[in-house]
Design brief:
The protein is an alpha/beta fold and about 375 residues long. It folds into 3 domains: about 100 residues, 3-Layer(aba) Sandwich (Oxidized Rhodanese, domain 1); about 100 residues, Rhodanese-like domain (Oxidized Rhodanese, domain 1, 3-Layer(aba) Sandwich), CATH 3.40.250.10; about 100 residues, Oxidized Rhodanese, domain 1 (3-Layer(aba) Sandwich), CATH 3.40.250. The strands form 4 sheets. The protein has a 5-stranded parallel sheet with strand order 1-5-4-2-3. The protein has a 4-stranded parallel sheet with strand order 7-6-8-9, with helices on one face. Strand 6, helix 7 and strand 7 form a beta-alpha-beta unit. The longest helix is centred in the N-terminal third of the chain and has 28 residues. GO terms for molecular function: thiosulfate-cyanide sulfurtransferase activity. Keywords: Signal. This is Molybdopterin biosynthesis protein MoeB. It comes from Candidatus Thiodiazotropha endolucinida.
């Protein structure tokens, strides 16, 4: 009995002594700039519903270009840089649940927005730190896309199948250009209208954020094995308000490509391969702007050839940006670099500017950072 008691006491002592070490290791894993109240995908799933839950608002803190291509349904978009101009979109009741998210564990935008909301007096604020990349893997409903993104797919004939989940009588009164009609109630009977290739992109829509037909149809498609399912949950009302019944055929011209730069898939981007090559072999031919926050630069290092300038500072100095060489904006995930690009393009279309939409691993010694595709 004495040996057992001694052993138990020793075990308790070991646990007691190792607790501070374990706590310290845990503290290291959480960046200092994280918001205090972080939640996971399972928490968000219970509130990411159609129709949206009352007294809950999910906010995508990324730039609009990111939100348009993919977001949590039914989140609204309030980019962190425009937060102060868009507070009217927040609920009047300061006790409502607010859930902010952005581009993943390295993205500070949602944490910043959450702190701003708390400063405004909101008392129930959370941050889904793993953000959109995690939602694609572990979330509830399939990701959503905006009307602008759907229009781009139609204009450029990107091969997506757009599915109207409303009853036939609604479809006949008006629908998106090129859409097929697979009403939810007849989904199993009309499933042969869907493409046979399970990797074909599918976009489901119905009558707006209160309409459950499209998410239910999308879930059925996922269960069938379709791998690229998206929701245009704003639906036909949003499409008709934005574009009417006719689709606009003209597309905005892309900015001229800078010499030696290989453009990426999206407008304004530099390809990952081109960034890695040019930053290594031609660093003097371009201006490289690191638009991360100072604490990130100090912690992770940066490209020695880069100009360190936050997105806010870029906005303040748009008129002073140089014109003699192309400018490339980059950050850690592409969110802030794209935002810097958008801000500059609104006022300085004369500049040759690009941004890197990728994950970037920095080196403390200032050598060329390594860009890799986003997850």
């Amino acid at each position: 009995m004495k040996r057992l008691a001694l052993g138990s006491a020793f075990t308790a002592l070991v646990i007691f002594l190792t607790l501070p070490v374990f706590a310290a290791e845990q503290a290291k894993e959480k960046p200092s700039w994280w918001y205090k109240d972080v939640v996971d995908a399972s928490f968000v799933t219970q509130y990411a519903t159609v129709p949206p839950k009352k007294e809950v608002l999910i906010v995508d803190s990324r730039p609009a270009r990111k939100y348009n291509k993919g977001h949590i349904v039914p989140a609204i978009n309030i980019s962190n840089s425009q937060f102060d101009k868009m507070t009217h979109l927040l609920p009047q009741n300061k006790s409502n649940l607010l859930i902010f998210y952005c581009g993943g564990l390295k993205c500070p935008l949602s944490h910043k927005s959450a702190a701003k909301a708390e400063a405004l007096g909101y008392t129930n604020v959370k941050v889904y730190a793993a953000g959109f990349p995690d939602w694609v893997k572990n979330g509830g409903l399939p990701p959503g896309v905006s009307a602008a993104h759907v229009k781009m797919l139609i204009d450029k004939n990107k091969g997506a199948t757009i599915v109207d989940a409303r009853p036939a009588r609604k479809f006949k009164k008006g629908h998106l250009p090129g859409a097929i009609n697979v009403p939810l109630r007849q989904f199993d009977k009309l499933v042969d209208r869907l493409p046979t290739d399970k990797n074909s992109p599918l976009i489901f829509y119905c009558g707006g954020y209160k309409c459950p037909l499209s998410p239910k149809s999308a879930v059925k498609a996922v269960a069938m094995g379709y791998t690229k399912v998206r929701l245009f949950q704003a639906g036909y009302p949003a499409w008709k308000k934005a574009y009417g019944d006719a689709i606009e055929k003209t597309a905005k011209a892309k900015p001229a490509a800078a010499p030696k730069i290989e453009a990426g898939e999206d407008e304004g981007t530099i390809s990952i391969a081109s960034f890695n090559t040019l930053a290594t072999n031609n660093p003097e031919d371009f201006y490289w702007y690191d638009v991360r926050d100072p604490e990130e630069v100090e912690s992770d290092g940066t490209f020695a050839k880069a100009v360190i300038m936050t997105v806010d500072e870029v906005e303040e100095n748009i008129d002073k940006l140089p014109t003699d060489k192309p400018i490339v904006f980059f950050c850690s995930t592409g969110a802030r670099s794209g935002e810097a690009y958008d801000l500059v393009m609104m006022k300085r279309e004369d500049l040759k500017i690009y941004f890197l939409d990728a994950n970037v691993a920095f080196n403390p010694d200032g050598s060329v950072p390594k860009a890799t595709p986003l997850e």
